[in-house]
Amino acid sequence: MFSQQNMSTNSTIDHCKAPSPVTYEILSWLMIGEFMLGLPLNLSVLYTFIFRFKFWKNKSTFLFNIVVADFLLVACLPVKAYHYHHGLRRSSDDVTCKAMLFMLFLNRGASIAFLITLSIDRYFNVVHLGRRNFVKVLKKSPQISIVIWLLLLPLTIPTMVKTFECCNSHGRQFETHLHDVTDTFREIVFFTQIVIPFIILVYCTVRIVNRLRKKTVGEKAKLRRAVCVVMSVAVVFSICFLPCAVARAVLLSVRLGQWQAAEDIVVQVYDSLMVLSYIDCLLDPLVYCFCNSGFKDAYVSTFCPTFLRKRLLNTDFGMGTTTTTTSGTRTISLPIIDK
To answer: Cα dihedral sign for 33, 37, 279, 304?
Structure first.
């Protein structure tokens, strides 16, 4: 009887208390800062997409879905900051904990899925120009976005357990075969959502850059835009997704080795990198601007002050995508809009 009770206790060891209150106090204020910047930024982006840019007419449904995913993240930040401020890595309430995990991982999965789809679209437009681009066909159907969200649900639901967020897996003293299988599945889902898309992103980037080197001067404007798109996505990945994946792998290794002193340090690094990953809601608008000059122009015209508006409207981030036409005695600059 004592053995069974001991097994039950050890199988539910809680690793969710903050090992350093000072560190988590700082992280809580960082999340508050991300929320205060991310909420107005994403509200302005949402307004532009709906009322100024009218994304459904400009075939930018995938970009709009990234905005929706970012709102899921922004909504979670105050709750996460509250728990960190009180020395907890997650909510002690099961419903709140599962809801937070669901929204956070749904945001991560959706952001990665739609960002990679944009990179694949640019890859086909540049490397396989003239062939049928299935991504471009999918962009014209809003139902495809709904299908993507629905496909993400089976990958998100397994993470809705409070032990996952605190990496309380593969390190319990008395772990049953069922626990081992479910923990393994959850970790595979977590890492494949990041590693496989990153491999696709690197491949698309290398092929587009190689294509750019082989093109003549007159064709390089469009290719520069494609390079900027995939490079901006690569920046988001490198800052927001890869570091926390590496830190989680290290944390799992430390827990398996039962190195408690090292775990207290690695846990803080892991949680700090997770907080850093939340700035994707601040970086994604840069992707929108690189992907679509029409959105950039609509956003700048609506929200930027007058003294910056003219300069930003006449500049396409150095990609040389502005053409000049002459009509009579007037010279008109027309941006090449990618829709």
So the answer is: negative
Of 272, 273, 264, 269, nearest to 15 (Cα)? 264
Q: Which amino acid is at 257?
A: G
Distance CA 49, CA 199 (A): 30
Tens digit of pLDDT for each residue in 57-98? 877 888 899 999 999 899 999 999 999 998 888 877 878 888
74 by Cβ neighbours in 10 Å (0-12 / 13-18 / 19+) ranks as: buried
pTM (2 decimals)?
Answer: 0.80
Q: Which pLDDT band, with edges at 50, 70 and 90, does 159 fall under?
A: low
Report the alpha-carbon distance of residue 149 to residue 107 in Å, rounded.
10
- From the CB of residue 57, how many other CB atoms can be counted at a distance below 10 Å? 9
320-332 pLDDT, tens digit each? 443 333 333 333 3
Three-state SS for 158-172 is: HHCCHHHHCCCCCCC
> What CA–CA distance (Å, rounded) separates 183 from 168?
9
Q: Cβ neighbours of residue 267 under 8 Å, at least 6 residues apart?
A: 15, 19, 89, 167, 251
Q: What are phi and psi of 299, to 5 degrees?
A: -70, -45
Alpha-helical (H) ranges within the chain are 2-11, 21-47, 61-85, 94-127, 134-139, 142-156, 162-165, 177-214, 220-236, 242-256, 260-277, 280-291, 293-303, 306-313
Confidence of residue 7 (pLDDT cuts 50, 70, 90): very low
Burial (CB count <10 Å: 0-12, 13-18, 19+), residue 134: exposed
| Helices 177-214/242-256 angle, 10° precision | 150
284 vs 66: CA distance, rounded Å: 8
- Beta carbons of 160 and 121 less than 8 angstroms apart: no
